[in-house]
Write a structure and sequence with these properties.
Shape: globular
Structural class: alpha+beta
Helix content: 10-25%
Strand order of the largest sheet: 1-3-2
Distance between the termini: 36 Å
Largest sheet: 3 strands, antiparallel
Number of helices: 2
Order of helices and strands: EHEEH
Number of strands: 3
C-alpha cells in the first residue's frame, strides 16, 4: 500500500452545499474546496488508507457528481475506445 492521498470529488458550483452536507452527514467533511479550470467545484477529502476507501466510495454523492467515468475492461476511465 502506498501513502494515502486526498480524494478529489467534482461537483457543479450549484451543488456544492448539498454535496458538502451529504459528505459531512456521513463523516467525510471536505478539508478544502477549490475551483478547477473548467469552473467546477472540487471537494478535497482527507487522505484515507486503502482499507477505508470502500466506505468513502459508498458515502460519495454520485447523484451530484459533475464527472462520471465508466470503466470497461482493463482500460482506465475516459480513454478513447480503440479502433476495431
Amino acid at each position: 500500500m502506498g501513502k494515502p492521498v486526498p480524494t478529489r470529488f467534482g461537483v457543479l458550483p450549484e451543488n456544492e452545499a448539498a454535496a458538502v452536507a451529504h459528505l459531512a452527514e456521513r463523516g467525510y467533511p471536505p478539508i478544502a474546496i477549490e475551483e478547477d479550470d473548467d469552473g467546477l467545484t472540487v471537494l478535497i477529502l482527507k487522505p484515507l488508507p486503502d482499507d477505508e476507501m470502500p466506505k468513502l466510495v459508498q458515502a460519495l454523492p454520485i447523484h451530484l457528481s459533475a464527472k462520471v467515468g465508466i470503466v470497461m475492461g482493463d482500460r482506465p476511465p475516459f480513454t478513447p475506445r480503440p479502433n476495431a
